Structures are given as C-alpha cells and as structure tokens.
C-alpha cells in the first residue's frame, strides 16, 4: 500500500522560455543529477519511510527520467501546446460568484423569490479572466487565531454591518482599522453563543452541550448562520456544523464563515431541494434565518423533514415570538400557529419552548405518518429513493420512510468508522472500506510532505538536509472534489490535522454522499460542469482524485474547471490532482493559463497515473 514519490520534472513549465534557455536548464539538471546521484544510489526505494518524506529521499529515478523530460521540453518549445496566460478580471469581479445574477434571472423570467435562486443557465459566462484579490487582501491568519480575527479587506462588508452589533450569532467588532473580531467565546454576554448552545442541550434533555455527540447529534445544518459563531462553538465540541445561506452581495454569512475557517456554502431552498439526500442531518438550526416557514403549504418544513434523520431535531429561534403584550406582538405570535399545526401533521413533537427558541423532534416511527388522517397531512412519497438528485423541485410529500438509512440518531454508532452493518446499508464491503482508509492514510502523509514551496524549487533538498516544515495550520478549508467514501477526510482526522473537508460527490458518479454524511462529514452533490456555490478565495486546498478523467469524458471543459478552481482557491492555496497519465499531461499544459506553479510527481507503484501538485500565486496585478 505504501507508495513512494519522486520528482518527474525539474523545470518549471510556467512560461515559454526560448529553446537555448531550455537546453541550458537541461544541462544544469543533468549536473544536478550528477551531484545528487551518488548519495541516493543505495536502496532508497526499499527503505520504508519514517519521518523523512519519501519525495526528498528518492532521487534515483530522476536520472532515468531526464531523457523523457527532455522530449517533453522540446515538444513544448516547438509550440505544441502553449495556452496563453489569462489576464486578471476587473475590480468589479473581486467577489464574483457565478449563477447568482438577480437582474439576469429576472430578465430570464424568474420571479416570486426564485430570482434569488441559483440559475447558472441564465447568467451568460463572462470574460475568461482570473478573479483578482481586493487591493488590501492579506493571507488569513492561521487557525485557530483566524477563527476569531479576520482581515476586513478580505471580505465585502459595509460600514453599517461593521458597526452594528447585531444578533447573537452575528456579533462582530471592529478591532483595529483593518481587522474584524468575533466574540463567540464571550460567556459573559447574556444570550451569548455558549449559553444558547447549553440552553438547546437542556431543552432536548441533556446535562450540557458537551453531551451532544453521545445523544447522536454529530452533524448540524445551520441555515442562515449569522457569521458562524454558533458553528464555531459546536465545532469545538466536535459537532460538524455546516452553514448554508443565500447569496449576499455585502456582509455574506457564507463568505465570513469561510474566511474564519468554518464550513459553509451558498444554498437556499426557495423552489428547489437542498443538494443533500434524504436523512442527512441530526439537527437543523435556524436562528432568525429569514425563512417564512408557514409559506408554500409547509413545503419548507417538509424540506427540513426530508434532510433530518429520524429522531433528529429542528431548532427555530425567532424574535417574533416574543410577546411583550400589545396587539402587534399578539398578531406575530398567532402567525406561529400554522407552523405548530403543520409540525404535528408531519409527526414532529414539540420538545420545548423557551424564550424565543422552539425545538421539535422528528419521529423515529414510520407508522406515525400512516396514523395521521386529518386534512392537509402530506402523503408519503411514492417510490422512495436515495437516488442522485440535483435541482429537484421542493416536495409536498414525506420522503425517506422506506430507506434502509431510516435509523434513529440515538441508535447509531458514534465514530466515523462505520460498522459492517452500517456499511452494508450503503452496499459497501468492510474490506473495501478498510483498504480505502489505509490507502488514504498513506496518501495523505505523502501529500502533506509535498505541500511546501520547496517542491517548486530547482534545487530540491539534498539528502541529510533538514526536512521542510510541513504546512501545519496554514491549511484549514479543504475541498475533496471527488470524495468517494470521504477517505481523505477520515485520514485528516486520524492525523489530527486542524482542517475540515467539503466532500463533493460529482453528479454522474456513484452516489456515495449518503455514506459520507453518515460518517458525520460535510458533503454535497455537485455538477463540476457548473461553478461551485461559494465565494472567491474560500479554500486552502483543492484535491481531486480521478475527477479530471471524468470531466474529460463529459461535455465540459477542463480549462473552465481550472478557472473555477482558481476562483475559489485562496492565494498561496494548493491543488493536488491525481489522474491518468495523459489527462495529467494535458492538464499540466492548461495550468499555464491560470498561472499556477505546477509540478508533476510520479507515483512509484502506479505507472498509469500521475500526481500534479500546484500552488496558486498571490497575484497583485
Ligand atoms: C448580470 O446580468 C446583467 C444582465 O444580463 C449584466 O448586464 C451584468 O453584467 C451581470 N453582472 C455580472 C456581475 O455578471
Ligand atoms: C491524534 O490525537 C489522539 C488523541 O489526542 C492521539 O491518541 C493520536 O495518537 C493522535 N494521532 C496522531 C497521528 O498524532
């Protein structure tokens, strides 16, 4: 299972150098090889690696590869493939998120709120250019300091949003001229996030919020998360909280959460389902999230029911409930009655109400639905399926009841390593799963050793030199663009890396998203022919194993995918692509367009595939 890695190329292929320059480089590469060859000519290949990353030990293959590299270099210099470097976009596109152009959506005929939905088909694709960082952009602070303090120049926010102290989850403060601080850990505040979290725990019958995990609450979907402070607190208790909120031009909840290193994505369910399968989350939370829950004949509540696991909780905090006397407040209170009536029809039980917070629990008993015969009770969906769905309309029926995944959250095992019974539900064998886990544990160790600017140096480390510093906490937001079982995520956890992973399952591949979510990981279904619903500069690392060969066989274009990856990647962020030989060769040539530093790495035990490691530069102009 252990694989060794070696440099394939010594030369940066970023620009188009003249032929004689290339030849000069080739000669110096040979010279370097001569220098390096002797100390590494012993049996490095068979020495199991300990702390020293394999890549820096293994120079032997370079000699054999020099010849083939020379051929590649010549072919490049002959102009076989020379995509031009793209220009930076105009300043207006600094925070560009495709598919959310309201005026274009209105023009295309969407209305009744649907103009705020995601409509990629309505937005014409703009100029092909690289989204530039704002003028005073700074590399975010490292985790965990960056969770509580961000650079104000990195996000788009108005002066008013700065100064207003806002709701509990939205409290922020201008620290210095160029920093914003979040006061999530301020227990002194009445109504602080910690108190709020404890209150929720008590309302569902727990002693404190540190018991969430034991009670089966591992994953929470936080709709309209403020600036993520509730999620930040829950993450410290190992509860995976994913924020979704609508696209916002200023003071975006999603942009600020991601800037803080907290899981978030743009998402709304005005007319279409969320991109998650049925029975996905242990808790859905909405604190003043702006959704009018009793609209559309309860379709929004049915959608919450769909994504909730059996026995899961819906927490709703809304100030309109506050009755301080007076006719206006009484009226507002009454508007909650339809919600309460509807929740009974869909077999939720009200666990409690305290101040402005309501908590309902979804039933664990499928028969409950059949016993309700009043008017307006939503029927069970026919032909229940966990099939791959994307852009499906909101339902008016109850789903998930015939799923094999109908398992109450209180009865589930708590780790991310699923039992063989749980795996069987997903049609996965324990051996395959274990093999996958081992593969990723080993792959991650190798990746990690590659994530250093040193690999782009023309003078790689010599044997005996100090090891390069691993990127400890420089990487926080990771996206696995083709996540399969979530193996990379699991490996990160085992290595105690302080990252979270957005596990993306591409459409038209085996739908492993239910498995990923059942492991307690963040995940989403996505069509990589379209832009990802996130703001620019939100991920530190993008990883894709086998995605490119999937894209190359589809109708969409790898160079557009690279452009989109560049948009969502932070400056100095990393890309790790693993794929078939010819696909990596093609991609490496295209990487020139997005101006990434790139290096091809050969996998020792795998002659059919290559690794392409890239870093996005911090372009200022
Ligand atoms: C949004 O769409 C309008 C109308 O099609 C267009 O003029 C405008 O440039 C678009 N905005 C962006 C940011 O693409
Ligand atoms: C990760 O942390 C756990 C608990 O602190 C520890 O037992 C384990 O050895 C650590 N793993 C690694 C690879 O450092």
From TrEMBL:
Record CDD domains: AdoMet_MTases
Membrane topology category: Single-pass membrane protein; Single-pass type II membrane protein
Class of this enzyme: transferase
InterPro entries: Put_SAM_MeTrfase, SAM-dependent_MTases_sf
Statement: the UniProt record of this protein carries the keyword Transmembrane: yes
Family: Belongs to the methyltransferase superfamily.
Protein name, entry field: Methyltransferase
Source organism per UniProt: Nelumbo nucifera (Sacred lotus)
Lineage summary: Eukaryota, Viridiplantae, Streptophyta, Embryophyta, Tracheophyta
Gene: LOC104597964
